[in-house]
Amino acid sequence: EKYGMLVGGVDTHRMDLSSMIMLKDNHIWSQGSITRAVQRARAVGGFSLKVEVECQSELDATEAIEAGADIVMLDNMKGNVLSEAAANLKKKWSGTRKFLVEASGGITEDNITEYFHPDVDILSMGSLSQGVPHVDFSLKIKKAL
């Protein structure tokens, strides 16, 4: 499904675990803080792998950016909360840090326009590739008479 999206022109989140370091809640909890998780990820991944941090709040995202994250995923934020957080982060770090803001969680084809905002760089939609029905087809070879 993911390869099909890539062939269709969609920029996939990552093709496999070696494409980027994504720090989710379990990784952060195991390290004690976002800062420590980003530092450990950088030590393992070096300069060549981007580090993305799943953030539950603007405060989490600020810590991730301070620690050197390349992408902050604002997870399950909607409407004004998302817009304000993205705008505040871009304004705060303008000219000093380069990072991308990603919105994720509950985004579908039906509600995607609610997530459009000039300060949101990436919209993640798992619904595009999860649960796509498979085509059942077969090829029958008949013996020539």
UniProtKB/TrEMBL annotation:
Q: In which pathway does it act?
A: Cofactor biosynthesis; NAD(+) biosynthesis; nicotinate D-ribonucleotide from quinolinate: step 1/1
User: Is the keyword Glycosyltransferase assigned to this protein?
Assistant: yes
One annotated GO biological process: NAD+ biosynthetic process
The family database entries (Pfam families) matched by this protein are listed as: QRPTase_C (PF01729)
Which reaction does this enzyme catalyse, per its entry?
Answer: nicotinate beta-D-ribonucleotide + CO2 + diphosphate = quinolinate + 5-phospho-alpha-D-ribose 1-diphosphate + 2 H(+)
Q: Name one GO molecular function term.
A: nicotinate-nucleotide diphosphorylase (carboxylating) activity
Q: Could you describe the subunit structure of this protein?
A: Hexamer formed by 3 homodimers.
Membership in a protein family: Belongs to the NadC/ModD family.
The protein's name: Nicotinate-nucleotide pyrophosphorylase [carboxylating]
